Amino acid sequence: MPGPGCGTCVSGGIVVPRVLVPAEAGDGAMYTPLLTQGEQLDVLERLDFVLRNISELRKEVEELRNSLQHLAAEIVSEVRSHLEETQKVTRRRRFPFPRERSDSTGSSSIYFTASSGTANTDDGESEGGYTTANAESDYDRESERESEEGEDEVSCETVRTVRRDSLDLVNEDETHLILDSSLEEGLGQLLQQADRLHDGNEQEKREGFQLLLNNKLAYADQTDFLWRLARAHSDMCEITEDADEKRSYASDGKEEIEIALQKWNQSAECHQWYAILCGQLSEHESIQKRIQTGYIFKEHIDKAIELKPEDPKAYYLLGRWCYQVSHLGWLEKKTASALFEAPPTATVQDALQNFLRVEELSPGFSKAGRVYIAKCYRDLGKSSAALLWMNLASELPANTKEDAESERELEEMQAVWEE
To answer: Which residues does 176 contact at the CB level (< 8 Å), separation at least 6?
Structure first.
C-alpha cells in the first residue's frame, strides 16, 4: 500500500507513482501532484518512443554484425582463391623442363625415358617400361584435375631417371623462392601497365586506378605498388570535377601513402606523392591548414630530392612551391606570421633555379615548367629571357591538365606582350 503523501496513476496499463507535495505548511497541509496527468502522459509517450528506438537500434546492430560476418567470409574466400591460383601456377613452373605432349615417336619430350632405345608406339610404353605422354594413354581419359596431378607424378619419375645424379626434387625452400619469383613477375607486369595507363588520357587513368585497386589484396605489402596506388588516387583527384570526390580521393590516397612511409621511409617516390596528396587535400581546407601543409610539403619534397637527386619532377614541385610562397597574399602572410615562429619564405629566384634544374635534368620535361620559367623571368624584369621561354613553351604539347592550364596562361602572356 502506498504510504501517505503518495498516489498512483494508471495509464496505458502502466502504474506510475505520483509524488505529492504539500500545498501549504502546517498540520492541515494539502498535497498536490508534482506532475499533472497530461505531463505524466507526455513522459510515458517519450519513454515509449525511446524504447522503440532502442529496439530498432538493436535490430540494426544485429543486421550490421551479420553483414560484417558475410563480408569477412567473402574476403577469406578471395584470399583463398588467390593463394590456390598462385600455388597452381607454381606447380606448373616447378620444373625447368618443357612438358609438351607429342605423338611423334622421335620426340625428345621428357615423358619418353632415354634409358634404352626408342619409344614403343604400339602399347604406349617405352622399352624401359615407363608410361609415355601419348594422347592415347590411359591417364588422358581421366578428369582434368587428375590429369594435372598425374603429369606432376610422371614428370617427377622421368626427371629422376634422366637426371638422377644432377637433379633432385624441389624442396620447400625452393618452392617459396619460385612462388616469390612468380609474384614478382606478375607485379612487374602490373606496374608496367599501371605506368602506361598513368601516362594516358583520363579514361586510361581511371582504368589504371581500378587496376591497382583490384590487385591491392595481393600486393599491398610492396612499396612500388603502394606509391603507384597513391599516385592513382592523385590522378582521380585531378580528373574529377566534384569537390567532395576530389577531397575523398586525396584523403584516401594520403592514407595509403602514409602506410607506405611507415614501412619504407627511404623511398623517394613515397615522400614525393605524400607531398603531392597533402597539397591536393589542403586545397579544400582553411588558410591555416594550407599554410601548415606548406611546411609538410616542403619537408617531404626536400627528402625526396635527398633520396633521388636526379628526379626532375621533385625539382619541378619544389620550384612551384617556391613560386607560390613568393606570391603569398597579405592575409596569408599575416596568418603565417601569427601562427608560426618562422613562416615559409622563398623568392622568385629560388623558383627559377629549381625550374632551370628541371630543364637541365630533362629538357622539355613539361609545358607548365617552361611557362613557369617565363613567368619567373617576367617577374624579375628580364623580358627577353621571358619571351624566349614563352616561345620554347609553345613548342611543347599540353599532355596534362596542368599543362592545359599553363597554356591558357601562356596565351594571356603572349597577348600582353603583343600589346
So the answer is: none
Q: Residue 30: its pLDDT value, please? A: 52
Residue 231's nearest CA partner among 249, 215, 218 is 249
In the 8-state DSSP scheme, what is residue 33?
Answer: E
Rg of the chain, C-alpha, whole Å: 37
* pLDDT of 204 over the 80 cut: yes
DSSP-assigned beta bridge partners for residue 263: none
Which residues, 6 or more positions from 319, have their beta carbon under 8 angstroms from its beta carbon? Answer: 350, 351, 352, 353, 354, 355, 357, 358, 369, 372
Q: Do residues 253 and 230 touch, judged by C-beta distance below 8 A? A: yes
Q: What is the pLDDT of residue 384?
A: 94
Count helices and strands in the chain by DSSP H and E runs: 15, 3
Rounded to the nearest 10°, the torsion over CA 192, 196, 202, 205 is 10
Q: For residue 190, how many C-alpha atoms fall within 13 Å in the half-sphere facing its CB?
A: 23
219 φ, ψ to 5°?
-125, 20
Cell of 382: 628580364
Q: Answer whether 357's CB lies under 8 Å from 315's CB.
A: yes
Check residues 113 and 24 and name the one with the higher pLDDT.
24
Ranking 120-129, 254-263, 274-283 by mean pLDDT, the lowest is 120-129
| pLDDT band, very low/low/confident/very high, at 180 (cuts 50, 70, 90) | low
* 252-287 burial code (b ≥16 CB/10 A, e <16): ebbebbeebbeebeebbbbbbbbbbbbbbbbeeeee
- Give pLDDT tens digits for 358-417: 999 999 999 999 999 999 999 999 999 999 999 999 999 998 889 999 999 999 998 888
Tell me how far apart the alpha carbons of residues 22 and 34 are, in angstroms, rounded to a whole number: 10
